[in-house]
Amino acid sequence: MTGQPLDPAALFKQQAAIQAATLVKDGMAVGLGTGSTATFVVAELGRRIREEGLRICAIPTSDATEAQAREEGIPLTSFGEHPDLDIAIDGADEIEPGTLNLVKGRGGALLREKIVAAAAKQLVIVADASKYVEHLGMLCPVPVEVVPFGWESAATRLARLGAHVAPRKHRDGSFYLTDEKNLIMDCVFGPIEDPDTLSQSIYGIVGVIEHGLFLHMATQTITAGPEGIKILEPARKQATQGAL
Ligand SMILES: O=C(CO)[C@H](O)[C@H](O)COP(=O)(O)O
């Protein structure tokens, strides 16, 4: 990507993205995330394809990422060809450092992102260091994707779980629609003490397609900030590695 000089937050995102892109090797099937940080990953993979002859194929998590991947000349594939992906690299809105549990979906791509994440052997999260939180829910609402039919009923049930619920809208007041043509309910729960139980409760609401709690999925986070690049893996994994 060329043009304007990057502001510090964007520079950190780019640093994390470039570091994560080094994990992508010849022959890999790669999940491409969505959002401003994932954009840098897609750009770096495009550069490596052009300049280093990297050979990969990829599945994008949104129409926007698909358009960028095509511009960058990244060959695209399908789950028919690759039901399992070697790696997915994506951004996040919140990261709990101890567990690497995440909130994702501020960009509205959470459904495809979770499908891609679930299919990937490694889910690497890239972000600037501002995304760390003590508890999920502290910085951002948890987005919940619901089918348009009966959304008010699903919204009421989400509120009964303790959330302040707002259907996501455009500035002109029209409903935001995901790439899958569903609605997003932005749910402010405040700090979430037990995300696993909350996840199950949300899945129990008829009409809910997916939510933005990505639990026990990330295998690594790569963040960049004023103190440099930080790489984390889930605590249990680190302990196992240390014991070997
Ligand atoms: O989940 C996402 C989109 O649905 C993004 O990955 C998340 O919102 C982070 O975005 P950014 O890198 O722009 O901060």
From TrEMBL:
<feature type="active site" description="Proton acceptor">
    <location>
        <position position="113"/>
    </location>
</feature>
<comment type="similarity">
    <text>Belongs to the ribose 5-phosphate isomerase family.</text>
</comment>
<protein>
    <recommendedName>
        <fullName>Ribose-5-phosphate isomerase A</fullName>
        <ecNumber>5.3.1.6</ecNumber>
    </recommendedName>
</protein>
<dbReference type="GO" id="GO:0004751">
    <property type="term" value="F:ribose-5-phosphate isomerase activity"/>
</dbReference>
<comment type="subunit">
    <text>Homodimer.</text>
</comment>
<comment type="function">
    <text>Catalyzes the reversible conversion of ribose-5-phosphate to ribulose 5-phosphate.</text>
</comment>
<keyword id="KW-0413">Isomerase</keyword>
<dbReference type="InterPro" id="IPR020672">
    <property type="entry name" value="Ribose5P_isomerase_typA_subgr"/>
</dbReference>
<feature type="binding site">
    <location>
        <begin position="90"/>
        <end position="93"/>
    </location>
    <ligand>
        <name>substrate</name>
    </ligand>
</feature>
<feature type="binding site">
    <location>
        <begin position="104"/>
        <end position="107"/>
    </location>
    <ligand>
        <name>substrate</name>
    </ligand>
</feature>
<feature type="binding site">
    <location>
        <position position="131"/>
    </location>
    <ligand>
        <name>substrate</name>
    </ligand>
</feature>
<dbReference type="InterPro" id="IPR037171">
    <property type="entry name" value="NagB/RpiA_transferase-like"/>
</dbReference>
<dbReference type="InterPro" id="IPR004788">
    <property type="entry name" value="Ribose5P_isomerase_type_A"/>
</dbReference>
<dbReference type="InterPro" id="IPR050262">
    <property type="entry name" value="Ribose-5P_isomerase"/>
</dbReference>
<feature type="binding site">
    <location>
        <begin position="34"/>
        <end position="37"/>
    </location>
    <ligand>
        <name>substrate</name>
    </ligand>
</feature>
<comment type="pathway">
    <text>Carbohydrate degradation; pentose phosphate pathway; D-ribose 5-phosphate from D-ribulose 5-phosphate (non-oxidative stage): step 1/1.</text>
</comment>
<dbReference type="Pfam" id="PF06026">
    <property type="entry name" value="Rib_5-P_isom_A"/>
</dbReference>
<dbReference type="GO" id="GO:0009052">
    <property type="term" value="P:pentose-phosphate shunt, non-oxidative branch"/>
</dbReference>
